[in-house]
Amino acid sequence: MATVLKAAVREDLRGSRLSKVRQEGNIPAVVYGKKFGSKAIAISESDFIQVLRAEGKTGVFKLEVDGGKTDVMVYDTQFDTIKNQYIHIDFYAVDMKVEMDADVPVSIVGESKGVKDGGVLQQILFELSVHALPANIPDSIEVDVSDLDINDSLQVGDIKSGKDYEINNEAEETIVAIGVPDEEPEEDEVPEEEGEPELVDAEGGSDSEGEEQE
Fold it and tell me: What is the distance of C-alpha 187 from the center of its chain?
């Protein structure tokens, strides 16, 4: 059964209305597409979070608006880290029969030889652009770094496209590299004291006082 997210049309588009929408536990949003046009909506924040967890950023699901259901993807999200809430969502109405471009998260798997030897993993690309039918867009693209040693890197050209999608990025783009180990800071040397240490005899006198007079 396809996931369905219900939405209400927003008739009042004034900025002052947006705060009230959020106070009611909803998120202001917009859905648009070549055939769909554009429509301002509001969705339940709790329902949206459940759908996002179930379908992921690149998943296709049904958006119910005005009694009709449309296949959509999450195109963009705006999140307020201070208030810890979504403040706006963009949905894209997709045509399931038409290929499209989408950004897919890169998932690093494995532990590289270089990291085991103290090297530093540096991830350059966190997303890859793919071209595919909406239903064939992957949730993520795994990149195995197990064989990478220090000073090794992995480019887009080293990753094979899936049977249902093509990667759009240039082959020369670097996804991940293993840098040299961080140099350990040298310990501060304690300067030696100049001269010979003063010797103290058992009676508490010092050698510098000289011999007792007869």
Answer: 37
User: What class is the 4-95 domain?
Assistant: mainly beta
What would you measure as the largest C-alpha separation in the chain, in angstroms? 120
CATH value of 101-179 in 2.40.50.140, 3.40.50.11810, 2.40.10.270, 2.170.120.20: 2.170.120.20
Residue positions counted in the chain: 214
pLDDT of amino acid 10? 85
Cα 165 from Cα 134, distance rounded (Å): 10
Using the Cα atoms of residue 197, residue 201, residue 207 and residue 208 in order, give the sign of their dihedral: positive
Report whether 7 contacts 42 (CB < 8 A). Answer: yes
List, for residues 184-204, the tens digit of each pLDDT value. Answer: 555 555 555 555 545 555 455
The domain ranges of the chain are: 4-95, 101-179
Is the distance from CB of 77 to CB of 86 less than 8 angstroms? yes
Both structure tokens of 136: 């064939």
More reliable by pLDDT, 119 or 206: 119
**Vertex 178, ends 172 and 179: CA angle to 5°?**
110
Locate all alpha helices (DSSP H) within the chain, ordered by sequence: 15-23, 45-55, 113-116
- Residue range 119-154, pLDDT digits in tens: 999 999 999 999 999 999 999 999 999 999 999 999
